Amino acid sequence: MTEVRPTAGASASLWERDDEVADVARAVDGLCADRSSSGGLLVFRGEAGLGKTTLLAETRRIAEARGCTVWSARGGETLRSVPFNVVRQLLQPALVSMLPEEAREYLGDWYDIAGPALGIADPGDRQADPQGVCDGLVAAVRRLARRDWPLVLLIDDAHWADQETLHWLAGLAERLDEMSVLVVVTRRPGEVSGTSARHLDTVAAAADGPVATLSALTPDATAGLTRATLGPHADAAFCREVWAVTAGNPYETVELLAKVQDSELEPVEARAGDLRELNRSARGGGLVARLEELGIDATRFAWAAAILGTDISTDLVAKLATLGPDDARRCAELLRTARILTTPDPATGRSADGDLEFVHPLIATAVYNSIPDALCTAMHGIAARIVTDEGRGAAAAARHLLEVHPDDDEELVGQLREAAREHLAVGAPDAARRCLERALEEPPRPESHPHVLYELAEATFLTAPARTIGHLRTALGMPGLGGDKRVDAVFRLSQALLHNDQLEEAVRTVEAEAARLRPGPARMRLQAVHFMWEGIHAGEATSPDRSRRLADLAATCTGRDNSERALLMLRGFDALMHGENAEEVAELCDRALVNGRLAPGLGWTDTEWGIELLLMLANAYAFTDRLDRAETLYNEALRAYETAGWSGGHLALAHAYVGLGHRRRGRLKEAESSLRESLRLAERVGRGLPLYWSATCNLVDTLLARGHVQEAWEVAERYGFAPPYPSTIVLPDPRSVRGRLLLAVGRTKDGINELEAAEKAAAARGHHNPVLVPWAADLARALSTADPARAARLAVDVRRQAERFGTDTAIGEALRCAAALETGQRAVRLAAQAVTYLEASPCQYEHAAARIEFGIAARSVSDLERGLDLAVSCGADGLAERARAVLKAGVGPA
Description:
Blueprint: H1 18-33, E1 40-45, H2 52-65, E2 69-74, H3 85-96, H4 100-107, H5 111-118, H6 130-147, E3 151-156, H7 163-174, E4 181-187, H8 194-206, E5 212-213, H9 219-230, H10 236-246, H11 250-263, H12 275-280, H13 284-293, H14 296-308, H15 314-321, H16 325-337, E6 341-342, E7 357-358, H17 361-369, H18 373-389, H19 394-401, H20 410-425, H21 429-441, H22 449-460, H23 465-476, H24 483-499, H25 503-516, H26 521-536, H27 546-555, H28 562-577, H29 582-591, H30 611-622, H31 627-644, H32 649-665, H33 668-685, H34 690-706, H35 709-718, H36 734-744, H37 748-765, H38 775-782, H39 788-805, H40 808-820, H41 824-839, H42 844-858, H43 861-874, H44 877-889
Parallel strand pairs: 1-4, 1-5, 2-3, 3-4
Antiparallel strand pairs: 6-7
Helix pairs in contact: 1-2, 4-5, 5-6, 6-7, 7-8, 9-10, 9-11, 14-15, 14-16, 14-17, 14-18, 15-16, 18-19, 19-20, 20-21, 21-22, 22-23, 23-24, 24-25, 24-26, 25-26, 26-28, 27-28, 28-29, 28-30, 30-31, 30-32, 31-32, 32-33, 32-34, 33-34, 34-35, 34-36, 36-37, 37-38, 38-39, 38-40, 39-40, 40-41, 40-42, ...
């Protein structure tokens, strides 16, 4: 009979793992080949006891033999509610070994963002953005990998990792080509669902090759392992029975053979019948019975260790088990001898404050499940107090508090609220949600109940706006939430309704609350919010006299507080959308600033007002040709969000509007780069949201300006840039941009229909600014042959609206449209006027287009050459190609 042996020097549990070990060796060799080598990812999947942990130990041995730095961590079944538990195990030891200044230097700008999650820095005083923290942790690995190359990260039992770690692991898996680090992950199949399962699927999809599934030992391998352990005299029948009772599970096989050795059982057929009883004593109920045989003290000690789950120190276990020091040390030794507990292996490199750990996760699970329910609950309550007394904080105690039965304990409610605040501060809103939901079960006293609901809404705001709506409505229906906190809650509710695509309900909510309040700052704030939501609504539900009411209210504002400043910004944006005089728009916006800057409390990361208001202000400057002021605001937003670690929707919008600023300026390559980054970030937040439309619409518009028509069409198709359109306003108008796209790809009839739909939507809203909603000029050009009379009327109307608005860009673009519909000297004169206006405009792409069109109409080589130079500097490849073609063909005198 052939016996399949493990690789030389490897653990017995590595029998029949040659292929997996070879994969590991290849991956390590690839990592070590060159400092510039890209990272790698291996995922091994297998049921409990099939040797995943042993395979990681072999990976460590191989990697360290090749000079690698190896860090490892393990998920725990009872620790999944502890945020960042596994990633802290993995990275914290390397960082705490540094001086604080050195750690700050390595992490750079990410120190204050990722440091609190890793437990090496104090959290800030505001809620951290989970995506920003995730990105910071990915950056930490990238920077540490450069210092500690070649770096290998081992993560065992990933199915039991906390959700925050899995979020980071999924992000890391997608960025491994940017760093030289090998990640090896083991997990069981199944075990998780929901968000955690999706993260693990992302990790599996990023792996180098298919996920390797570990199988049980064959009868031949089991026989070989039996004889290697017990001696070559073990007969075939005995070996077959070992395989039969363990089903080839390597862990159970090794444990059973250890029991055979301990009992001095002869490995012969006559004693094979004893194997089943021995196997039962090593697992499940047999293990529990064996534990009870060690005595009540040892059992209590093991239960206390299972309750703690991590950082198991003899002293801490003794406190929880109410044992004296000598008895505790005796129990620890008994449990080590019985192969239930063991001393942590320093070679694993895992962070551990304790001096004990369970021999195997299967044993830890069996011991924990053996604790009587009532006693388990009581021990968790005691553990929470002990952890708190040890100075580990409310967040560390929360894991135990979550397991305590509700008992109308206001002190426990306070502890859970404090834990939730700590979780939010490090970027773990899901952990905060669990704490606050548990606090509601207690339940809180009537006076604190609405405040717990309000805090719960803060925890769910980013991830579950529908749930947030319910929490806030309930809180607002209770007594006890008054003053500024109530106004904040109404504003938060309206924001959640907006994010849940219930904008009309958001408008009604703030309108109704404002009507309840007496005149004053609180009422004015809600009135401003009401006008803000109405102002960004793209539907037809706004009352017809809204602009008049807003103008009347803003006329009373001097900008003395932020409510008045907000109303001035809103009035300026409303005037912009309606195409009122640009000088007056800019003057309204200027009055909303303090010494030319945003007022305190109105910054990009301040939460009292939200990003929408400030984008209205910045866009009002951008489309009134005050691009310097607009770009200052856009770049301030980008810096503020990057510094604060806000890597979600806020940062996506910041990149989108930085891109819009580049597009308006005529820096088309830079615009495309910013907009693609915005779209990448928006993809992580979710399709269909207003920020997603902003990124897509502006990218399509920029690609059309560059002359990359096919690429623009592919982007539109890939990202769903087509009806139905969002309920919020997107700049520039998406219908107008899509109409232009359809014309560019030759779908003239569809393009005309889309532009006519843009015309109707703009008329319903009274949006007559030809720069923001540029349907008319494109429609006039499209109809120039089929319906020249209507095209001429459209061109006249565009020019009238442009002159009313009064910017050089608007008037110059209107003149370009008029020139395109004319011939002969009239076309030349109009094109020359367009050049004059657009030369004074900050929008260099439009100037380049006008210069080339004038050069063609006037047959002017110098204007064509100048237009070509402008087009090249803008990155307008289509314009440049057109100018080169005309120059190559030659132009005669005008």
